[in-house]
Amino acid sequence: MKVSVIIPTNNRARLLENALLSLTNLNYPRLDYEIIVVDNASSDNTKDVVTRFAKRYVNFKYVLEANQGLHYARNRGAKEAKGEFLLYVDNDVTADTNLLEEIVRPYVDPLVGCVGGRIIPEWEAEPPEWINLFPKWYLSILDDEEGPKEVQWIFGCNFSIRRNLLLEVGGFNPDAFTDKKMEWYRGDGEIGLLRKVHNAGRSVVYNPSAIVWHFIPKSRLAFQYFK
Q: What is each CA distance from 14 to 82, 97, 147, 214, in whole angstroms?
């Protein structure tokens, strides 16, 4: 198995279905990658959606992770994975057909530990002009067209890593907080993992040809969200 695509999810079955549909139609040998959906204690019909896909496609897996927290789900996906490379995507992305081909391309260099790709916004509503006063990373947008190039950081909704490296450095630092009042203490996520990757002497590469479109709901375009 070459690549394991891991999708943590919680109560977003409608958006998840679109993401899965795009991931099952990639220009990549179907037997060379698997799709693992890690259900992080959803109460909607997430399991039913994944089960339908699993009946139609090979190398498709549903995993339940009862400990709530994105990084618990990400680490669980890594433990279940069989691929040499792990690609983490969000449940609200649409994958470009060449995503896997481009995400693995920089790994020909054995010193490359992580590869991230371009993240283009798919707006639910027209964004207000004041959005441009804020850095794009507030909305997980990464649309630099230059590259491939070595970088310090990549974003979690289009984030890959060698599986053996992730296990070697201890995976994502966990977060367990679902209470909004505790959100300040949720942990350092992919930034914490990337620090460990750099400290291990491995490089991080951004490839703009590895593309996903990231759905940005109207609720994230409100002043209260930015606050």
A: 27, 21, 33, 14
